[in-house]
From TrEMBL:
Origin species: Rhizosphaericola mali
Any Gene Ontology CC annotation: membrane
Keywords, ordered alphabetically: Hydrolase, Membrane, Metal-binding, Transmembrane, Transmembrane helix
Calcineurin-like phosphoesterase domain mapped to chain residues: 167-349
Domain of life: Bacteria
UniProt entry tagged with the keyword Ligase: no
Stated name of the protein: Metallophosphoesterase
GO molecular function, one term: metal ion binding
Length: 409
């Protein structure tokens, strides 16, 4: 999405220049009383950031897809930062313009410059502080992109067979291997998951950004994921290659087929609208895995519950892996009230928000009712994993990458 916004680079560059000139006036205003070395240092830093943005903007087509993600993120963050600052400056200019018109119409002398300058300087400070804070926060968030957090939940189900009481599940989601640049850090996260000694590992989709080749350097990392009951996986919306252009339709199909093979080579059982029955001491639970199914119009609906569910009707406890959490309210709860636990991902918590005990917020909540952590409706639960990897913006602000540990009792 961010990439599409910057496709017409010359128009974006002109907009950049206009905003930068506008913001520079505010910087000059708030530094007018500073010493010359400080002023020129600030001018130079702002000029350097502006120059880097222009260079990065025109370098996107000549670097790898992974590198371009980082360059584009820098351009986007800087653009939004100066846009925020410009909004405050525009408010001040609008105020002064309206004041001038009113006094002209009333044939009154213009107000004293002293108070106007004071208000202008205040808004300049406010704009620069807000824009600078946004830039600094997003820059800091890059350091969190591999800051994996283990989140543990104990879930009580009265209908869980006694033989499966204490079942420990590790859920991973949204690996997005095409965004990684630090293999050692990614492997550290895998070891954190294994240290939980899960009985079962479930991956709920988006192994790659677009192309199966993205997994090449990470096969020996993710094939370390092992569990006594196995590792099971599903596909997410990014796994189908729908968001890039392919030379032929056959190339797109070949990419998806290769990705399916990769799941097998990792030792994972890819569930394509199917189910698996687990049995202990004569007691059974069912795991259902479907392809991506999103309630939002622009997300694919490849999932087929009508294929995956039959055969599980008489199993007393059911777990569903479905990548997109909007599926839960749209189809799972209304049509399949006996699915006890749904595991999803997809939202990443937007990689931006506030995530503290007692308070959770992210802009993504305006799009998804269930966007992170655990939700319950009647006897049904859904857990939305915040994602292991990252996409677009190569960082995490407030919403850290997640390894979910669920104990069923």
């Amino acid at each position: 999405m961010i990439r599409s916004l910057f496709n017409n680079r010359w128009i974006i560059l002109l907009l950049f220049i206009a905003l930068e000139v506008y913001v520079f006036q505010a910087i000059k205003d708030i530094t007018k009383n500073a010493s010359q070395p400080i002023r020129w240092t600030i001018y130079g830093l702002f000029g350097l950031l502006s120059l880097l943005s222009a260079v990065f903007l025109f370098s996107l087509s000549s670097v790898s897809e992974r590198t371009s993600t980082y360059l584009l993120s820098f351009v986007f963050v800087f653009f939004v930062s100066i846009l925020f600052c410009s909004i405050f400056l525009a408010v001040d200019d609008l105020r002064r313009g309206i004041t001038w018109i009113v006094y002209k119409l009333q044939h009154k002398p213009a107000p004293s410059e002293g108070s106007a300058i004071s208000r202008s300087t205040f808004l300049s400070w406010l704009g620069v502080i807000i824009g600078g804070s946004f830039f600094g926060t997003m820059a800091y968030g890059i350091s969190n992109r591999y800051n994996y957090k283990v989140r543990k939940k104990t879930l009580h189900f009265p209908n869980l067979p006694e033989a499966f009481k204490g079942l420990k599940i590790v859920q991973l989601s949204d690996i997005h291997s095409g965004s990684f640049t630090n293999k050692a850090a990614v492997e550290r996260g895998v070891q954190m998951a294994l240290a939980e000694k899960p009985d079962l590992i479930l991956f709920t989709g988006d192994l790659v950004n677009n192309r199966a080749i993205e997994m090449k350097d990470y096969m020996d990392v993710f094939n370390q994921l092992k569990a006594p009951m196995g590792v099971y996986s599903t596909l997410g919306n990014h796994d189908y290659g729908d968001y890039v252009e392919w030379p032929t339709a056959e190339a797109k199909v070949a990419n998806l087929n290769r990705l399916k093979e990769i799941h097998g080579e990792l030792g994972w059982k890819l569930m394509m609208n199917e189910h698996q029955i687990f049995e202990r001491n004569g007691q059974k639970i069912a795991l259902i895995g479907i392809e991506n199914w999103g309630a939002k119009g622009h997300f694919p609906k490849y999932g087929r519950m009508d294929l995956a569910y039959p055969g599980t009707e008489n199993i007393p406890f059911k777990i569903l892996m479905s990548h997109d959490p909007s599926h839960w309210d749209a189809e799972v709860r209304p049509k399949y009230p006996d699915i006890d636990l749904t595991l999803s991902g997809h939202t990443h918590g937007m990689q931006f928000g506030i995530d503290i005990p007692g308070f959770k917020w992210s802009p993504i909540k305006w799009m998804y009712k269930e966007w992170e952590d655990l939700y319950q409706e009647n006897k049904q639960y859904i857990y939305v994993n915040r994602g292991y990897g990252f996409l677009g913006y190569p960082g995490r602000v407030g919403i850290l990458p997640e390894i979910t540990v669920l104990e069923l009792v």
